[in-house]
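Work Package 4 report. The design task specified in the project plan requires that, given a folded chain encoded as structure tokens, an amino acid be chosen for each position. We show below one input record used in the internal validation round.
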């Protein structure tokens, strides 16, 4: 399989389900496979940072080893204003104290790395690249991962942002618009999955200052299912290689069972090998 200057890597989010993606990226790094363009949303962005900094195993450590030691998911953190997943710990303590991010390598990487957020004011996706400011890089990634309702709104450049998956859950179209017409797409839902066709209705007091965001949340399932249809079309046309779980996941978005997460990581690693070695696409 040939990866050229028109090939993008698209990473879906999914909270702890993206431990599957950590396995995929470690397989790529073990074989020194680097893309000229990587775009990640939510947990896909946090995994993507470790790929951009070329730190094999860092995402696995965060999702499995560190979770086992710190148990950073739970209602107690939510009540403290940190989010059901302790965002302060994951983004502002862990990168410095437990497994430092190699910022220099990340910023010097020859490939582009893009993170997706959702703008609370406009209800539109925002796409960020940061190659100089460490704090801003972390702020953007934290915003991209800030799951609505269960995580706090995050400010980026003074603008309130939440999880990029609200507005662009699988940013393959952005990759194509940027000139990367062939894409490897890593999904964190099994093939054939579609969201239930039902509006998501929030109580009136939640995000009442952000009506555009509320509308995006209400109809998110429509955009998500349409994106999955588009990914299927790109794959059928030979323009995309899709790596996804083969069966419904046992691990959830806020999964705390490290055994399930380890199995998911191993599934991602094996899925990457199977996909790359069996494809006949000339990506």
């Amino acid at each position: 399989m040939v990866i050229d200057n028109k090939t993008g890597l698209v990473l879906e989010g999914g909270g702890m389900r993206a431990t599957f993606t950590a396995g995929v990226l470690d397989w790529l790094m073990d074989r020194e496979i680097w893309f000229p363009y990587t775009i990640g949303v939510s947990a896909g962005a946090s995994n993507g940072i470790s790929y951009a900094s070329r730190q094999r195993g860092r995402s696995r450590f965060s999702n499995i080893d560190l979770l086992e030691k710190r148990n950073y998911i739970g209602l107690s953190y939510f009540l403290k204003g940190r989010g059901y997943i302790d965002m302060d710990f994951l983004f502002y303590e862990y990168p410095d104290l437990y497994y430092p991010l190699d910022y220099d390598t990340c910023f010097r990487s020859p490939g582009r790395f893009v993170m997706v957020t959702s703008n609370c004011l406009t209800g539109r996706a925002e796409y960020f690249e940061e190659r100089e400011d460490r704090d801003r890089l972390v702020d953007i990634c934290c915003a991209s991962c800030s799951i609505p309702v269960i995580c706090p709104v995050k400010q980026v450049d003074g603008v309130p942002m939440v999880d990029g998956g609200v507005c662009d859950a699988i940013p393959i179209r952005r990759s194509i618009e940027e000139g990367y017409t062939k894409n490897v797409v890593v999904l964190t839902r099994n093939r054939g999955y579609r969201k239930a066709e039902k509006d998501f209705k929030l109580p009136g007091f939640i995000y009442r200052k952000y009506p555009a965001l509320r509308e995006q949340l209400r109809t998110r399932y429509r955009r998500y299912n349409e994106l999955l249809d588009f990914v299927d079309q790109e794959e059928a046309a030979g323009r995309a290689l899709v790596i996804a779980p083969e069966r419904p996941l046992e691990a959830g978005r806020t999964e705390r069972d490290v055994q399930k997460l380890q199995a998911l990581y191993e599934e991602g690693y094996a899925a990457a090998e199977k996909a790359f070695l069996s494809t006949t696409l000339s990506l």
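The first strand starts at residue 7 and ends at 11. Validation will be extended to a larger panel in the next phase.
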